């Protein structure tokens, strides 16, 4: 399978999980950086009817909404002092990259593919999180991050950013990148750290956050396997910061 075919296969996979309704109006999505969503009522420890989450998960969602998802902080840099905006920004970054906490259960997310206008040549994939209990009619999930393929790279390379329009690699909103190997069978997710070959300080070396492997079978459908570092009960992932090929998640 050629590199071009691999890229097409990956884009097809993204398209299948994306909401590709190109006639919808995405202006609200683009304007809201981290909008608060209507929260389900918490009654004791029981989840609302039809919910796949537990009461503890709802409580976590409400706590997160108070910390950096409420109306007063719907967008980082949206009205507070410089110090408050900085704290909100770092809290949001930490939330985006951390793992699920013990008791969260399943976390329902969805990907929206934006191919409108100039994005038709380089689609933007935006990740949204649903509240416990799911979305009601007309509701939208909470925006977490977006991805766009970076041109001019030898392998498929996607920029991951908390900006709904991820274009600036040097932006403070960048949280990492997703990079493919030569054959397109493996995709590794990194944080915003530096390549170990271009960095002298060990603490500045990039972390590996996850790995996705595609296994193709000529006689049947392909398989996708995902790997992430182990996490603690509080959702803190083990630091996986390899300095050579032998220590990577793919090794």
UniProtKB/TrEMBL annotation:
Q: Which InterPro entries match?
A: Tubby-like_C, Tubby_C
Q: Entry's Pfam families?
A: Tub
Feature: compositional bias, Basic and acidic residues: 1-14
Q: Where is this region: Disordered?
A: 1-50
Q: Where are the compositionally biased (Acidic residues) regions?
A: 18-28
The Tubby C-terminal domain is annotated at 103-246
Family assignment from sequence similarity: Belongs to the TUB family.
Entry protein name: Tubby C-terminal domain-containing protein
């Amino acid at each position: 399978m050629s590199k071009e075919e691999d890229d097409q296969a990956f884009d097809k996979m993204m398209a299948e999980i994306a909401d590709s309704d190109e006639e919808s109006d995405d202006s609200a999505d683009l304007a809201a950086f981290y909008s608060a969503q209507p929260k389900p009522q918490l009654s004791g420890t029981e989840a609302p009817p039809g919910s796949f989450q537990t009461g503890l998960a709802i409580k976590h969602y409400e706590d997160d909404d108070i910390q950096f998802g409420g109306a007063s902080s719907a967008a980082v840099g949206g009205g507070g002092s410089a110090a408050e905006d900085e704290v909100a920004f770092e809290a949001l970054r930490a939330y985006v990259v951390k793992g699920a906490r013990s008791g969260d259960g399943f976390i329902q997310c969805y990907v929206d593919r934006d191919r409108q206008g100039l994005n038709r040549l380089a689609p933007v994939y935006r990740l949204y999180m649903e509240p416990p209990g799911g979305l009601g009619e007309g509701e939208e999930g909470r925006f977490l991050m977006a991805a766009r393929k970076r041109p001019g790279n030898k392998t498929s390379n996607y920029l991951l950013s908390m900006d709904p329009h991820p274009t600036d690699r040097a932006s403070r909103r960048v949280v990492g990148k997703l990079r493919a190997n030569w054959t397109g069978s493996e995709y590794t997710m990194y944080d915003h750290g530096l390549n170990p070959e271009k960095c002298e300080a060990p603490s500045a070396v990039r972390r590996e956050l996850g790995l996705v492997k595609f296994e193709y079978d000529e006689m049947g459908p392909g398989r996708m396997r995902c790997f992430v570092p182990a996490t603690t009960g509080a959702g803190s992932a083990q630091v996986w910061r390899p300095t050579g090929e032998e220590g990577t998640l793919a090794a």
